[in-house]
UniProtKB/TrEMBL annotation:
<dbReference type="GO" id="GO:0015093">
    <property type="term" value="F:ferrous iron transmembrane transporter activity"/>
</dbReference>
<dbReference type="GO" id="GO:0015086">
    <property type="term" value="F:cadmium ion transmembrane transporter activity"/>
</dbReference>
<feature type="domain" description="Cation efflux protein transmembrane">
    <location>
        <begin position="18"/>
        <end position="209"/>
    </location>
</feature>
<dbReference type="GO" id="GO:0005886">
    <property type="term" value="C:plasma membrane"/>
</dbReference>
<keyword id="KW-0472">Membrane</keyword>
<feature type="transmembrane region" description="Helical">
    <location>
        <begin position="39"/>
        <end position="62"/>
    </location>
</feature>
<dbReference type="InterPro" id="IPR036837">
    <property type="entry name" value="Cation_efflux_CTD_sf"/>
</dbReference>
<comment type="similarity">
    <text>Belongs to the cation diffusion facilitator (CDF) transporter (TC 2.A.4) family.</text>
</comment>
<feature type="transmembrane region" description="Helical">
    <location>
        <begin position="120"/>
        <end position="139"/>
    </location>
</feature>
<dbReference type="InterPro" id="IPR027470">
    <property type="entry name" value="Cation_efflux_CTD"/>
</dbReference>
<keyword id="KW-1133">Transmembrane helix</keyword>
<dbReference type="InterPro" id="IPR058533">
    <property type="entry name" value="Cation_efflux_TM"/>
</dbReference>
<dbReference type="GO" id="GO:0006882">
    <property type="term" value="P:intracellular zinc ion homeostasis"/>
</dbReference>
<dbReference type="Pfam" id="PF16916">
    <property type="entry name" value="ZT_dimer"/>
</dbReference>
<feature type="transmembrane region" description="Helical">
    <location>
        <begin position="160"/>
        <end position="178"/>
    </location>
</feature>
<feature type="transmembrane region" description="Helical">
    <location>
        <begin position="12"/>
        <end position="33"/>
    </location>
</feature>
<dbReference type="GO" id="GO:0015341">
    <property type="term" value="F:zinc efflux antiporter activity"/>
</dbReference>
Length: 302
């Protein structure tokens, strides 16, 4: 329980930090757009608005996911983080479409922009802040197994990449005196954001659809069951799914017909303890069956 509370505390701090960093970066990027009038920098600032909104959604999701199980949600509230990631994906796509609308109008009538050096410097500084924070979100979000924080970090990573492209491209536009590069870069940013939104939606819907663990993780789970099921005959129909930081594992354990309930229960306890040691956030359900239910397939007991 203490480990669970620690992870929640870390997740909450990261979520609050994302909101604060998002507001700071938004202010810097909008200031860069205001002093230059650049459509590309406008697109960068618009994406930062999405960052602030999604950070707020992620914070709410982290708080709700930490609630204990109740009568209406006996398996907990972990899946709410996937809903957060879906909202983030939709917001990212909306931002990309708004950028396309703004950039398209300026593509045929590009306007010159002022104070380009100062604007690019401010935007570059904001991008450095985002780069450091997205690294923290992704690495620590994975450590505390928070889909909402990882999705937020990956979105920030696309923001860093697109911002870097904008700074380089606008620098070239100033040197070559080609103002048309400004809306063209904004369109490229929009395409990059669209791809990011699609990736976030794809991963989050996988969690909502009870996607199974990876093949490598499933192989490890089966191996643990095999090594700690001494006294049983076999284990079959091993099924898994993810829900936020939780991993749900379910399987049928076949035991000799003459085995007592107490003996079968001891085998189940041993398997559960080993699985929990491998993953403290696992939720295990074991169905004990007599030997006439054996399928002679699945996990062989060592």
């Amino acid at each position: 329980m203490r480990g669970e509370d620690t992870m929640h505390s870390q997740s909450l701090k990261l979520a609050v930090g994302s909101l604060v960093v998002g507001v700071i970066v938004l202010g810097l990027k909008y200031f860069a757009y205001w002093i230059t009038g650049s459509v590309a920098l406008y697109s960068d600032a618009l994406e930062s608005i999405v960052n602030v909104v999604t950070a707020g959604v992620a914070l709410l999701a982290v708080r709700i996911s930490a609630k204990p199980a109740d009568a209406n949600h006996p398996f907990g509230h972990h899946k709410v983080e996937y809903f957060s990631a879906v909202i983030e994906g939709v917001m990212i796509i909306v931002a990309a479409l708004l950028i396309v609308h703004e950039a398209y109008g300026n593509l045929f009538n590009p306007r010159p922009f002022s104070a380009p050096v100062e604007g690019l410097a401010v935007n570059g500084f904001a991008s450095v802040i985002n780069a450091v924070w997205c690294w923290l979100l992704i690495t620590r979000g994975k450590r505390v197994r928070s889909p909402a924080l990882v999705a937020d970090g990956r979105h920030l990573l696309t923001d860093v990449v697109s911002s870097g492209g904008v700074v380089i491209g606008l620098g070239l536009a100033v040197m070559l005196k080609l103002p048309i590069l400004d809306p063209a870069l904004a369109l490229l940013v929009a395409v990059n954001i669209l791809w990011s939104g699609w990736q976030v939606l794809k991963e989050s819907t996988g969690g909502l659809m009870d996607e199974a663990v990876s093949d490598a993780t499933l192989k490890r789970i089966r191996q643990i069951i095999s090594e700690h099921a001494d006294g049983a005959l076999e284990a079959h129909d091993v099924r898994t799914r993810h829900a936020g930081k939780m991993t749900f594992i379910e399987f049928h354990l076949v035991v000799p017909g003459e085995m007592s309930v107490h003996q079968a229960h001891e085998i189940c306890d041993r398997i559960e303890a080993a699985l929990h040691e491998d993953d403290e956030h696992s939720w295990i359900t074991i169905h004990v069956e007599p030997e006439n239910k054996a399928k002679h397939s699945g996990v062989v007991v060592l």
